Structure formats: structure tokens, C-alpha cells
Amino acid sequence: MHDKPQPAPDHEFRLPGHRLLSICGRDAIAFAQAQLMNDVAALADGHWQWNGWLTAKGRVVALFALLRLDAETLWLLLPDAEPTELAAQLQRYVFRSKLKLAPLDLQVIGSFQPPVLARGSALAASAADDIELDLGSEEAPRRLQIRRATAVDDAAARERWDAFDLAHGLPRLPESQAGQWTPQQLSLERLRAFSVSKGCYPGQEIVARTHFLGQAKRGLGLFESATPLPAATEVTDDGRGIGTIIASAGNLSLAVLPLEHPDAGIVAAGLPLHRRPLADGLAR
């Protein structure tokens, strides 16, 4: 990262890769509780949490912010996954449940400004289709809005937003990385994004066993390189593969690699990787 970072943009900008999927109906909470990896039933109305959907083998298909608007309305804010495709996958498990899965046609807007009303996991809703989230930390504020009105396109601001996610240990999962990693390999305990005590959900047995037996041997590392590195790039040490780049933004990358591996000599695509500390502040 630069010794003299540029000031964050002070304007609003579109986050077109962030999309929304609603789960609405009498059985919405029960369905999400049975399918998703975090404790939706324990989440209060008007709050949000990091959450995700796993394969039966405990691999993360999609990671998202789950908003509980009321006892029958959940919104999934998807930074990477395509909502229509995810809805089709989840629909296979609806059976007789009384609920509807539907993508939402709303804008997702970011800014590097403190939220007006939202704080931590408490969201702020001025209308049914105008919602604010606190997606920053005390040291580095960020505001996300869901609304109908749009904002400017700013590629540089979007890249800065994505880099903020990576720097704070929020994995971004492009299609090549979906279904590849367990929550522990993605260090999602840092975000309090999964539960090992709420009961059954797809992949829960593997997640719980890894947690209680202390078997996690891989986790996230934040690295900087001289030039950008694409996701799925192999990380090597003396020519031996030890890990994988899972996401990148600018010259920052998140990689999954052995927790105890020394940093010296790590490269990817021939470029030295320089470890940077993961920032705190996005846990909810």
C-alpha cells in the first residue's frame, strides 16, 4: 500500500456488482435458518449480519450481508453472486415453505463518508426501498445505500471500495473461487459470519468439526504486489505451490495459504508478495 494514500472520494458512486435478492414470506426466517451458515433467528429486526450459503461439503458458494427487515422479510446483499442464479439454486430446497425468492431492482450506492443513521449492525430505513448500512469502521468510515435513485459511475472509487473490503478481511469471491473454500479457510470468524452452535445447515458438520477439533490449517493472508494479480493465481515458495489468490483489487490480494508458513520467498506469477496486516472493523 502507498506510504501516502490518496484521500478517499467524498462523493456517492454506484456499486453495480452488488445486487439484491429478497426472501419474503411466513417461512422466510425458518428457511434461511436451515439453509444459511449464520444464526438468522438470533438476528433482530432492523439489523444485519455477514452470512453465506455452503455446499454440503462446507464450501462457500456465496458470501453476503443478510438484512433482516422484519419477521417475514430478508434481503441478501450480494457483492459477487448473481441473484437470479442463487435464487434458482435455493429454490430447490423451498419444498412446501411459504416464501418467495426474488431479485430486487434497486441501486446499491457507496461512499467513503460516515453513515447518517446506521450504526454497526443496525441498519437505517427511511422507506421500504431506501436503506443505509454502516460498512466501515471507526477509523475508516463507509456508507452503503440501497435505493431507487442512482449515482455516478466511478471505476477508481469502486476499486478503492473493493480494496477496502480485502484490506479488512472481507473475501470477494469471483465465480472461479465459489465453492472452493471453507469458512475457516476464508477466516470468516473474523467477521462473525458463521455459527457453530445454531443447529443444522448444509456443510454445518464439517464447519463445526473443524472448529471444535482445531483442524483449520489454512487461512487468509493480505498481500501487496508490484502489479495486480488475478484470482486463481497460484502462490508458490521455491517453485512449490502453497496457496491461491482468491481475490484482488489494484495491487492488493487476498490469498488462502498455510497459517504457519513463513512470509519470506512467497511469490505469485513471478512477483514477490509482501504481507500486509489485516485491518479490523467489519465484524458485525
From TrEMBL:
GO biological process, one term: iron-sulfur cluster assembly
Superkingdom of origin organism: Bacteria
InterPro entries per the UniProt record, alphabetical: CAF17_C, TrmE/GcvT-like, YgfZ/GCV_T_CS, YgfZ/GcvT
Domain CAF17 C-terminal: 224-274
Key word Transit peptide present: yes
Keyword Transit peptide: yes
Pfam families xref list: Beta-barrel_CAF17_C
UniProt keywords, alphabetically: Transit peptide
NCBIfam families reported in the protein's UniProt record: ygfZ_signature
Protein name per its UniProtKB record: Folate-binding protein
UniProt organism field: Thermomonas fusca
